Amino acid sequence: GGGEQGTASPLAQVHEAKRALPTKEERRKAKKARTKAQKKALKQGASAPEAAAAGDVALAQALGVNVSPRGFYDVYGVDARASIELRRDVEGGVRLDDVRGLVLWAHDAGAAPRFAFLRNKPLVRRTLLISAGGLDAHTYESRPELFEATRRALGEPIELDANPVLDPVGATRILLSVPMDKQEKKASAAALAAEAQATAAAARAAARAAFDALAEGRPPPAPPSTYVLTPEQRSANLYPCDAHGDAATDPEYVTTLPLDALDGADREAAIERARQLASVHLGGGVGSDEVGGRGARAAELAPHAVVGELLFAVDCEMVRCASGSVLARATLVDAAGRVLLDELVAPTEDILDYCTRWSGITPQLLSGVSTRLADVQQRIRRLVPAEALLVGHSLENDLRALKLHHANVVDTAVLYQHPGGRSFKHSLRRLTEHFLGRSIQGSADGHDSAEDARATLELALLKVARGGAFGGDMGGRNDRASRQLCDVIAAGGTRAALVDRPRALDRHATGGAQAVAAVCDDDVVARAIDECKGSAAHAIRAPSDAEGQSTRVSLVWAHLAELAAHQQKRVRKGERLERRHVGDTYVKGELSAAEPTRALREQDEAALRALDKRIGDLCAAAPQGTLVVVTSAHGDSAYVRRLQEARLKLRRDVPVEDIDRWDDRWEQELKQAKTRAGRGLAFATCT
């Protein structure tokens, strides 16, 4: 804006004074004063227009021109504010990564999004990004009385093309991770390889130290039995269960015998094997005064107690027959890595595929083999009491091939959790290379089941020796192709504040980000409001940190997780599966006039009303100059995942409560549930 009528504008006065300077050195000094003032203003939390104005004022002062800062940056008007317009006619639809793109664009770290136009963008001082999974477009549009505060604060949303099985962990990862482009991937490849090598070396050193500690008799943090899968974990990973399913329909299934049911020689052999390896399992060598802090000599431990910590590892190789995967080789090792059983097994049906590339099984190997499945089962039942711990990697596949039920299982695919959640698992080959420092499964002749069994055993012992938290920092492959949003924001000179549960903060609060732990959604709201107001009230006088970065918070992440948690809890509690959506028609952009045949329950309505109030409170408290972005990355994906799990179990002849068989009606129910859960929402407004 210009000055009074007939008077040159402040910029014109400055340019005239600058041209009047006699030497280049004087002009350079004046320009340096401007740059210094701009940088100082940015570090103190000024917005881009304010920083530019501060630089212009410093330049004017250096030139002897007396002007007001307002004359330089009040180009939008005294009462001007930023505003945003959402477009609903975007070709190809809007996805969750497009919402992340809007946030990046607001911070000058990405291209303009296809679905939004932000007016007066320089007036945006901060972004409040709210994630509220579990809310779908159908519920929002068909029950307006539940979302009055949200509508009042944010107006009408746009619909997202969401992943109907996405869980809150995956949604958070998409929003808070920024994919690298090809050049960035190439530039970081060498550094990542060196870092991975150093991390693996450190892990192997930790493994050696852990095994040395066990050998010296130092007790582990917790005994091996601590890591036995719970019944819920076995069910989620589709382990064969001796209470129902295959046990009731397949007469070949057998169950391991309790210690007291073994004959005398087998029972004594199991007890003696456990006592000999007590130093490995419980800490404290044989004959020590303390064994795992239990205050008893190993030789004096009750047989059931010592056998309850006895480890065996098993690995099987399979071939493909008409009925599916069938056992062709079984290997069992004890806790010292000694092979107790290694048998080739001749299937009773014709082999369609030897799967030699993976199994190592060939027609020549099985030629003349007379051992049958029942023979291997009998030997394993004599060696492995029901109280002992059976270790494997994705052990459910081995137990199904063995047609064996064993409750005390330790699964290294579950022990070393993948950062992507339950749907992803690290391979045994990668875990072995990373933590044990050796390569397996590299032969063109197929896998060596004895080698795999020993690797699985050592990984389990390593976890026992180092404790449950060990190995949790091992990233997934997708980590190599992305950067944390916090780091991208920090590169622009400001910081992000993440308000979330501690587990999410451990994964995403990197670099210069502020990690603000919350225990519930109300806590998230209160702390996010504090961060928004703090970034407004203290931005100008906030000191810089040791690295010279501004302490101004320009992005606040608030994760409202209780609606999705309520939906997941309802599924976990074994809610009766019933067709919720029969009679509804879900077409993108068009809702059925008919209400769902299954009305929302009171607790569902309470969860939705609570979400509405929290979103309203956050929006109302956001200071002027805040871009508020709210996204529901998915609807009731927990219900979809449970239906998919039920379909998979029934196709494997594992009974599911409340469903006798998977028919066309249940298939239609799953289809409609996926359609509904895949209709996410995105809101945006400027305060």
Notes on the structure:
With about 675 residues, the chain is an alpha/beta fold. The chain is about 45% helix and about 15% strand. The strands form 6 sheets. A 7-stranded mixed β-sheet has the order 4-21-20-3-17-15-16, sandwiched between helices. It is elongated. Residues about 1-5, about 70-75, about 280-300, about 535-550 and about 580-600 have low confidence and may be disordered.
Question: Brief overview, please?
Answer:
By secondary structure, the protein is an alpha/beta fold. It contains 28 helices and 21 strands.
For this entry, give a set of tags:
44% helix; alpha/beta; 687 residues; 28 helices; 21 strands; disordered N terminus
Helices and strands in order, then pairings?
Blueprint: H1 10-20, H2 24-43, H3 48-63, H4 70-73, E1 83-86, H5 96-106, E2 116-119, E3 126-131, H6 137-142, H7 148-154, E4 158-161, H8 168-176, E5 177-179, H9 182-215, H10 231-236, H11 246-249, E6 254-255, H12 264-276, H13 278-282, H14 303-307, E7 311-321, E8 324-334, E9 339-344, E10 351-353, H15 356-359, H16 363-366, H17 373-383, E11 389-392, H18 395-402, E12 404-405, E13 409-411, H19 412-415, H20 428-436, H21 449-466, E14 482-484, H22 485-491, E15 495-500, H23 502-508, E16 514-517, H24 521-537, E17 553-559, H25 562-572, E18 586-587, E19 590-591, H26 602-621, E20 626-632, H27 637-651, H28 664-677, E21 679-686
Parallel strand pairs: 3-17, 3-20, 6-12, 7-11, 11-13, 15-16, 15-17
Antiparallel strand pairs: 1-2, 4-21, 5-14, 7-8, 7-10, 8-9, 18-19, 20-21
